[in-house]
Inverse folding.
């Protein structure tokens, strides 16, 4: 991915745009990559939480790839991974990163842009 | 480039065997840290933006890789690898080459807060793994984290970050790598996020101050556990060869003393200086008002040094090399030939162009590179413009000490401006120089002429006389000054005095010649008279001779006649005997008469 494109994609999206994207993304297969470092309790928790979220919201159209940096340390540089665990949404674009064990499902959903809007939206719902 | 280990550093090394160190390879820094950064421990370099943190860290790695065969990992949080590579290429560091040789790795860590969300617990194991992988890939012994504080901008959970940083530094120590961590300077604290709390073995502060529109970079070791280190602020500069720290205060008064004498380039000046010129490895100051020939004297000295085959370094703060060469040609000094033979090197820069420390640093560097025997600073007084008087004074002392330590004979010129006391210097160095020549102009009879005298010259009997200083197409010359009833005479007064003296001398000579002639004439006359008298006498004598001769013959005749008479008479034979007796008598009478 070229740097200029990356920057283009990284700009914050308006709510409307997110909605549109979500509609187009509805049929898309989600490419998710979870970076872990060994089978630590935190890694296992992150994986479990991710699995749950995907089953609930993306049933049948997601694909989770687990990268264990202990086994493949050279892969850390590619996605600029510092924190462990890190979940990277490769597709749909734009690229998103969620750092942490995904304990807070709501924040994870917002981070993954499965659920648009901030916490305020959810209160009104 | 290349490292220079100075004596004090080696001594300090010995004293600190217990604490292993990693040489930075940066000139001066190893000296003040007593051998480099603590080996196997993290060192914190802090400073405000543009202070040179990244460069110092980079040079530490590059020199480690090139000079000490210690590969290094540069983990960049601010600049990308291509940017860094390009930035340091101007310093002669080829990172691509080093990377190919597996001596150097740049790992750029990009943290984009806008694309990161945080939920739940995490750690920085990813960073550890990346760093670990990079270290393992090339067997790195040195690591730089530049600037790790950027993590605070990218990640929100400060509690986790702090815990992880503590773990990171611990981990670096466990790995046994010598690490350098750079950090931005914070308000009232060394670093913005208090990293000094974690890195406590060695903390170095870089500073970049601008005073009177002139900037000076300074470095200070805030702390260094287990090492006696220099505590001062040391000026440093960043130039085409990278980082240069000047351990200026490590100088003392232990320089070598030389008994050798060197010519000043002006033979009569050598005569004034005890007949042999200056001592080698001393400091010579020439001060005087404008246009008194200070630069010409300096050029003569340089010319003489080059003639001896010694290297000279000429710092000119007022004239360009070309101008100097042209001007000196007018007094018969061909400096260009020495310049071409690489014996003479000029360095011209305006004094106000840099700060004092920068000047000092440049002089240090050039002296180290060129290894000259003679250094000329023309004029030192202008350095005041680059700082204040006190700073300039300190700098001059440092500089003189430095040059003496390097065995360099320093020739300084100083302009004395009107209005001020003549026998002083702007930078108050008169007390620390060894030989002080003073040039002044003498106004007399509507003329301005140059004069020179030796104000002081340590360790030699020097002339107390004022000499007229003459710039001729054949070079510098010194002439006697005439002292007349109306004071010292120079220039055309001297010439007229000389003419007058010549006239007087001629008259005296002519007088003497006349006297000689007179005497000779008298003698001749006397001799002539003596000759005449002798002649007269000779005539008289001859006459007397003739007369007596005639008398004798007459007597003879008479006697003969008488004998004949007697014979004819035949009266008495006895008479004949008596007659013969008589015949002799008249002769004796004549002889008696002549003697009377």
């Amino acid at each position: 991915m070229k740097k200029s494109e990356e920057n283009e994609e990284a700009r914050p999206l308006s709510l409307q745009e997110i909605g549109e994207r979500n509609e187009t993304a509805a049929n898309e297969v989600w490419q998710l990559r979870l970076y872990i470092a060994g089978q630590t309790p935190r890694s296992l928790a992150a994986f479990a939480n991710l699995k749950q979220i995907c089953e609930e919201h993306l049933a049948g159209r997601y694909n989770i790839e687990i990268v264990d940096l202990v086994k493949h340390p050279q892969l850390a540089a590619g996605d600029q991974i510092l924190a462990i665990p890190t979940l990277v949404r490769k597709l749909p674009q734009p690229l998103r990163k969620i750092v942490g064990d995904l304990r807070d499902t709501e924040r994870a959903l917002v981070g993954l842009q499965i659920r648009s809007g901030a916490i305020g939206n959810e209160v009104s719902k | 480039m290349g490292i220079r280990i100075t004596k004090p550093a080696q001594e300090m090394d010995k004293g600190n065997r217990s604490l292993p160190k990693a040489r930075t390879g940066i000139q001066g820094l190893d000296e003040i840290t007593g051998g480099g950064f603590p080996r196997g421990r993290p060192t914190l370099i802090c400073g405000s933006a543009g202070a040179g943190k990244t460069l110092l860290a980079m040079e530490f790695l590059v020199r480690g890789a090139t000079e000490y065969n210690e590969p290094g990992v540069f983990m960049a949080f601010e600049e990308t690898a291509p940017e860094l590579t390009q930035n340091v290429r101007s310093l002669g560091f080829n990172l691509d080459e080093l990377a190919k040789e597996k001596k150097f790795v740049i790992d750029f860590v990009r943290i984009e807060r806008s694309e990161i969300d945080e939920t739940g617990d995490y750690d920085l194991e990813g960073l550890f793994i990346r760093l670990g992988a990079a270290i393992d890939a090339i067997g790195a012994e040195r690591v730089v984290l530049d600037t790790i504080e950027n993590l605070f901008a990218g990640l929100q959970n400060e509690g986790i970050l702090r815990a992880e940083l503590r773990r990171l530094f611990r981990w670096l120590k466990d790995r046994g790598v010598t690490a350098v961590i750079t950090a931005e300077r914070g308000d009232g604290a060394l670093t913005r996020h208090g990293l000094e709390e974690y890195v406590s073995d060695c903390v170095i502060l870089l500073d970049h101050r601008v005073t009177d529109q002139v900037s000076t970079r300074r470095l200070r070791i805030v702390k260094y556990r287990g090492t006696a280190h220099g505590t001062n602020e040391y000026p440093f500069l960043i130039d085409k060869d990278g980082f240069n720290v000047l351990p200026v205060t490590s100088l003392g008064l232990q320089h070598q003393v030389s008994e050798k004498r060197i010519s000043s380039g002006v033979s009569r000046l050598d005569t004034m200086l005890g007949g042999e010129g200056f001592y080698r490895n001393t400091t010579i100051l020439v001060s005087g008002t404008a246009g008194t020939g200070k630069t010409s004297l300096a050029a003569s000295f340089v010319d003489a040094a080059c003639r001896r085959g010694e290297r000279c370094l000429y710092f000119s703060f007022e004239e360009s090399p070309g101008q100097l060469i042209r001007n000196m040609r007018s007094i018969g000094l061909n400096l260009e030939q020495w310049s071409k033979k690489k014996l003479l090197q000029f360095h011209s820069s305006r004094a106000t162009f840099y700060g004092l420390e920068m000047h000092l640093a440049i002089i240090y560097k050039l002296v180290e590179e060129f290894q000259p025997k003679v250094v000329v600073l023309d004029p030192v007084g202008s350095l005041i413009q680059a700082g204040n008087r006190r700073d300039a004074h300190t700098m001059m002392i440092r500089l003189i000490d430095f040059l003496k330590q390097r065995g360099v004979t320093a020739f300084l010129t100083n302009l004395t401006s009107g209005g001020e006391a003549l026998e002083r210097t702007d930078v108050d160095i008169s007390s620390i120089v060894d030989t002080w020549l003073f040039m002044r102009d003498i106004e007399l009879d509507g003329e301005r002429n140059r004069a020179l005298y030796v104000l002081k010259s340590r360790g030699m009997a020097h002339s107390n006389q004022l000499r007229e200083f003459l710039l001729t197409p054949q070079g510098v010359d010194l002439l006697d000054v005439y002292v007349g009833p109306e004071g010292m005479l120079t220039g055309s007064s001297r010439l007229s005095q000389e003419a007058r003296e010549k006239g007087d001398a001629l008259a005296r000579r002519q007088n003497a010649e006349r006297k000689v002639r007179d005497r000779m004439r008298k003698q001749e006359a006397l001799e002539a008279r003596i000759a005449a008298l002798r002649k007269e006498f000779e005539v008289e004598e001859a006459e007397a001779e003739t007369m007596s001769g005639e008398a004798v013959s007459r007597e003879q005749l008479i006697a003969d006649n008488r004998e004949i008479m007697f014979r004819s008479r035949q009266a008495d034979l006895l008479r004949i005997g008596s007659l013969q007796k008589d015949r002799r008598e008249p002769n004796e009478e004549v002889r008696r008469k002549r003697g009377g």
Q: What stands out?
A: Chain B has three domains: 20-111+123-247, 261-489, 495-595. The two ends of chain B are 119 Å apart (CA to CA). Residues 261-489 of chain B form a domain with the Rossmann fold fold (CATH 3.40.50.300).
